[in-house]
Each structure stands twice: as structure tokens, then as C-alpha cells.
Design a protein that fits this description.
The protein has about 240 residues and is mostly beta strands. It folds into two domains: about 100 residues, Immunoglobulin-like (Sandwich); about 110 residues, L,D-transpeptidase catalytic domain-like, CATH 2.40.440. It contains three helices and 20 strands. The strands form six sheets. It has a five-stranded mixed beta sheet, with no helix packed on it. A four-stranded antiparallel beta sheet has the order 3-2-6-9.
Length: about 240
């Protein structure tokens, strides 16, 4: 999960903020970069920070944002300082193969489970790329063309409605992709995955047929290459 800073108003200059901010992993510079993006239309931009690679497992993160009183652009100053101290847990990475219709789940690099899946049908293809668990609900109300259902054991991976969830009604799991874009699991697999998952876990879709998940569609930050990420985005000037 990226480090995200929210603002009450959009800064028009990011220079002072980026010079003052420090992020450390286990006491050392994290070596990451800030990317400024507008996630919701009409809302202030957000500043997202990530390293080049995923945060290391079982690590200690320290964030220091001594920005109070610094310029946020002409006529704007940052109102508050912020510090944050937290720990990263185990590395949980799931790799979903759209061809084999299997999901392989890894914990700290070791394969712990392989389960069958059904992905999005041709008209509603599952997005490809790197997604990050945003939320978990049991059940989750899902509304779309022709359906309005409470779906059990739902793990959200995109803002616009992709979940990894129980699809007890789907008899095609492991054989054909027939969903509305979500990753369908059997009841037993979904119960296990729901308990296993934590906010910030990674779900990789290397060969899904849909477009690459956009950076704004949840935590799509890892779908930008590192060179582009380092440019900082276009939402806020220097």
C-alpha cells in the first residue's frame, strides 16, 4: 500500500514539501518518490509515496513531514506537521493466471495455496496489472446491470468495483471466465482467502485481458514504471 497524504486544498507547488519530507525503512532512507494525483474529480490532490519495489516484509517505517508553515504555492502554506511510525507485516502476494484460471497465494515468498478462479467475461474483462487489497467486507453489496446482491467474503482490489470474492452460484470456476470483472472463488476458497488477506496485500494479474489498472483506481500506483513515477505526476507543479 502506498503512503498517502491528504490535503484540505490542493497545493500548487510540491517543492518545499518534498524537500522536507523523509521516509525511512528500518532506519534508512526508503529511496522512494512522491507522486501527486487527483483521485476524485472535484477533490484535492493526494500525495502518494512508494519505493521502487514493494515495501520489505517485517520492516519498520518512519515518516516525518515537518511542513507546517512551508509554502504550498502562491498564497498557500501547509498547516500541520505529521509523523507516522508503523510496521509492515508478512509479504502476501497472490498471482492470478487468466489462462490457467488459477490463483497462487504466497506468504513471505512461499506458496501456501493454489485455488481455481473465474475472471471477467469478454464484455467485462478483468483489468491486468498490480492491485492492492483496499478493504474487506462480509458481506459486500454489489450493484450492476441486472443484479443487486449481498456477496459474502469480498476482498476489494479496485475503486471501481473489482473484488476477489465468494461466487457460490458460479459453476464455471476454474473452467471459464464468466464474471462481471471480479475474481470469483468457490465458497471454501473465498472463506480461506478472506481470513488470510490484509489491507495492503498484493494481487498480481499479469495476463488478464482488460486494460492495465489505472493509478487512480484504488492503489494502482505500482502500475506506473519507476521512471514515470519519479517524475511526480502533473497534478501539482514544482
Amino acid at each position: 500500500m502506498p503512503l498517502i497524504v491528504n490535503f484540505s486544498r490542493s497545493p500548487t507547488s510540491r517543492s518545499a514539501f518534498e524537500k522536507a519530507a523523509t521516509v525511512k525503512v528500518n532506519g534508512h532512507d526508503a529511496g522512494g518518490a512522491w507522486f501527486w494525483e487527483k483521485v476524485y474529480a472535484g477533490q484535492p490532490v493526494e500525495a502518494h509515496y512508494r519505493p521502487q519495489e514493494f515495501w520489505p516484509a517485517h520492516s519498520h517505517i518512519q515518516v516525518d513531514l515537518p511542513v507546517s508553515g512551508l509554502s504550498a504555492g502562491k498564497g498557500l502554506t501547509y498547516a500541520n506537521d505529521l509523523t507516522l511510525d508503523y510496521h509492515i507485516g508478512a509479504s502476501h502476494i497472490s498471482v492470478i493466471d487468466a489462462h490457467a484460471l488459477r490463483m497462487k497465494v504466497y506468504s513471505d515468498g512461499k506458496l501456501v495455496k493454489t485455488v481455481a478462479v473465474s475472471l471477467g467475461k469478454a464484455k467485462t474483462p478483468t483489468q491486468q496489472g498490480i492491485k492492492v487489497v483496499m478493504d474487506k467486507r462480509n458481506p459486500q453489496r454489489m450493484i450492476g446491470p441486472g443484479y443487486n446482491e449481498l456477496v459474502p467474503y469480498s476482498v476489494r482490489v479496485t475503486l471501481d468495483g473489482e473484488f476477489i470474492h465468494d461466487a457460490f452460484w458460479n459453476t464455471n470456476i476454474g473452467r471459464i471466465s464468466t464474471s462481471n470483472g471480479c475474481t470469483n472463488l468457490t465458497k471454501s476458497a473465498s472463506q480461506w482467502f478472506y481470513k488470510f488477506s490484509r489491507i495492503g496485500d498484493v494481487a498480481q494479474y499479469p495476463n488478464a485481458p482488460g486494460r492495465t489498472m489505472p493509478v487512480w483506481d484504488g492503489y494502482g500506483d505500482w502500475n506506473l514504471d519507476w521512471t514515470t513515477w519519479q517524475l511526480g505526476g502533473t497534478a501539482v507543479g514544482r
